[in-house]
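We now fix the convention by which a protein and its fold are recorded. The integers have meaning only within a learned vocabulary of local backbone shapes. A complete example follows; check for yourself that the lines match position by position.
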Amino acid sequence: MKKGKMIILSGPSGSGKSTISNYLLSKIPELKFSTSCTTRNSRNKEIHGKDYYFVSIETFIYKIKKLQFAEWEEVYPRIFYGTLKSEIHKNWKDNKHILFDIDVKGGLNLKKQYPHNSLSIFIMVESIEKLRERLILRNSESKEKIDLRLNKAKEEQRYANKFDFVLLNIDLLEAKKEAMNLVSKFIFNE
């Protein structure tokens, strides 16, 4: 097995990225989750340093100026996300492949920087209305924030064809199996 590969999962909020990421991490011990940096507030049960590095806008901007990010994006107004270069180097030093659960533009930026050792998968559901249902069921955001995420999802779907694969998450069990097949082939058969 070769080390130093990246699995990039992207797609609209509510598409199932985190659920599929957690499944892959539980089944493939060679994978390590890349903890992103963000300026958003934590959701229920999210842990600083495990799920995200939750930082202030000022700290995030400082890290931008110091070129500490492999990629970063202002995904929503005043809500930044980014991948620290130190996260990538730490995981590769530990001989792990890295799993990213990342916004669409960030995923494409990583793919552009690491084209030969990355697999990019765009996860989507059958409709914007289905995304709305999933976001409402999360019960973690206001109607305004859900509407903002849905508008963003419409824009993000235009980028699906720029990814290596598009995974349609209608049946979660099937989506997990398909993701497992794609990732296993990429990591173990090259």
Notes: The two ends are 8 Å apart (CA to CA). The CA atoms of residues 1 and 189 lie 8 Å apart. The first helix runs from residue 17 to 27. The chain is about 45% helix and 25% strand.
